[in-house]
Amino acid sequence: MKATLSTAVVLVLVLAAGCGPSVETGGTGSGGAGATSASNGSSGTGAGGQCAGFADQKGAATVAVHFRNQTSQPIFLPTLCAGIDYTIKPLTGADGATYVYPKSCFQTCEDLQTQPQIECGACEQTTLRIDPGGTREASWDGTGLRATMMPAACFAPSGGGGTLCGQVVAAPPGGYRVDAQGFAGCTGACTCDAQGVCLGSATGAQALPDPLMFSFPDQLQVDVVFSACAFGCP
What we know:
This protein is mainly beta. It has one domain (7-25, 56-226). The protein is 6% helix and 37% strand. The strands form six sheets. It has a four-stranded antiparallel sheet with strand order 4-3-8-14, with no helix packed on it. The chain has a three-stranded mixed sheet with strand order 9-2-17, with no helix packed on it. Strand 3 (75-80) and strand 4 (83-84) form a beta hairpin. The chain is globular, with a radius of gyration of 19 Å.
């Protein structure tokens, strides 16, 4: 059984692992349509305004990440809640943030100051197919998700009573590395629609892209290339 590249997000943060709420305790997550905020006079401004320090941050720039298949066979990319499962890491080493994370049905520390906590169902398992010569694009908004201990007083009254939450932080300028993996097929009948979205998990021979490093926020477009020998050469 293969492990996805971004499993750490789901394991460390219990606030972000589904595509849609299965059990609502009121409101919806930041990734859901029609999200609402509950009034809470003490959140965000209480305790000397300390809660404002847990607000979501904005990235310095958005980077277009292109996944290109230059092999002679289809490549199947694993997904994480419908998005391509890949990682972006600082060249200086781990800094406590996960820079590619699922954004459907999750709540940040800022959200939990005004919203009740929700529970999400599991995401549907899908795989993305890239035919030879084809390209798929992802978008990185220049942020990461960091597990943070927020004072209990900052949570909405019905926020679940916990202190661990995920804060969206801006990625610092500097060098980053992109890691990804592709596979030769997918499980089951592997039925794909016209857009190359397939039901099932990516499986089979593994394909690795060429090493990729880039400078942020100087480079706003990067290419993750599965070159001719991505599956290995004789």
